[in-house]
From TrEMBL:
Domain HAMP stretches: 193-245
Top-level division of the source organism's lineage: Bacteria
An annotated Gene Ontology molecular function: phosphorelay sensor kinase activity
Assigned EC number: 2.7.13.3
Subcellular location: Membrane
Organism: Lactobacillus amylolyticus DSM 11664
One Gene Ontology cellular component: membrane
Coiled coil location: 226-260
Histidine kinase domain sequence ranges: 260-476
Protein name, UniProt field: histidine kinase
Catalyses which reaction(s): ATP + protein L-histidine = ADP + protein N-phospho-L-histidine
Amino acid sequence: MKLIYQHMLSFLLIIITSVSIIGFTEIDYVRNQAYEQNFGRMESYGNAIGKLAATEGSGKKETLDTTFLNQLQFILSAEHVHLRIFNTKNKQIYPQTTTTFKLPNNVYDSLKKGQEIRIRNNNQESTYMGQTKYAYTGVLMPWFSKQKLIGIIWIGSTVRNVERPITMAKKNLINSLIITLVVGLILSLILAYYSTSKIKRLSRATEKVAAGDFDVQIEHKDHDEIDQLAANFNRMVRKLKKSNEEVKAQEERRDQFMADAAHEMRTPLTTINGILEGLQYDAIPEESKPKSIALMRRETKRLIRLVNENLDYEKICNNQIMLIKTNFDACKVLHDLQTQLEQNAKKANDQLILDVPAKLPIYADHDRFTQIMVNLIQNAIQFTHDGKITIKGRRLLHACELQVTDNGIGMSPEQTKYIFERFFKADPSRARLGTGESGLGLSIVSSLIKQHGGKISVKSNPQEGSTFTVIIYDKGYEQFVAKEND
């Protein structure tokens, strides 16, 4: 069953149930009121006639005059009221019948004690008046004069006369139920359509998202839970779109990496294969063999470096390395790196400048800190020609700050956004041999710094250079950040 019909059925059931409960409660109330009023009226008639009987009983008569009772019955019959009178010997004396009619002894005993008995329907109850052509409701009342029983009267009216307002109430209930059913059907249709239309919009939007359209947004007014669901859906789609874009960018970078890696590996493998074939067929002169073997070793190291960088990155990202953090002087490490990388800088006609204090205490893993700085400096050399590369260091409160600044090709804001992600190359066309050629160097740097509980940031403008800032905190002040769950 469709949701709109379920909603309509629910609304109708609620409306019909509510109207039925109210209607039947009202009918029951009207019925009780009708009978109570009838009993009260019968009792007033009975009391009035009883007073006449008591007046006559003060003389020698103990019953009312038959002629008077006939006249009274004629008058009361217009209101469908009938009466019976019993004497003190439990014998019906009015109206007179051919057969003697008496009340049951237990009923007579109760009446002698002054109890009044109400009969709601003599044809349905086990009552004392017997079955009649028309159902009657009335009261049995004892008459007393000077605390002495002088007679008993049964006075009642037809049930159909008493239940006439009840019948009218039932007709009104049926009419109200029909009108309510029609109005409820229309209202439930409107309400169900209003509710299900929102759900249909969500369903259509979900189908579009499933088909790959992440630009879907649902308008809502925050009126109810469905609007709240729409707002959550919009947030989910925005996150999915962002994740999808990042996945696509990651895929593109991975594809580029695979192409670059294949290209980088093809050259050394071709070189090594050519030298080996030359050695096998003695095509290489004896005096050229040492040079050829040295070239083969360099190309082999280059291949090993490409593989090691990938393995290193995987270990770092999966927390498979253990940092052995100690306090040491970073100045000594930086001076050693300046000496080691000076030759690489000269090849690009770059000037390597070191701007650090006499001592620069730092709390880090010595080897991994060296790896971080080598990657940052090599990255600066790689993208700077005929320029300057400045390495600065200083102490902050409970931390050590290091900066590597160059005036090379720089990066755009879009490149800066992805610079620390795996496989990303800011300028693949200008990548040269050396550390960072695989697009993993800065990813490794970022992962290592995070494991140190530190921070890394970059500021860059195209053709103006870049500045990488690293902050490594002292022991007890590390700032470990959990990965975000997108």
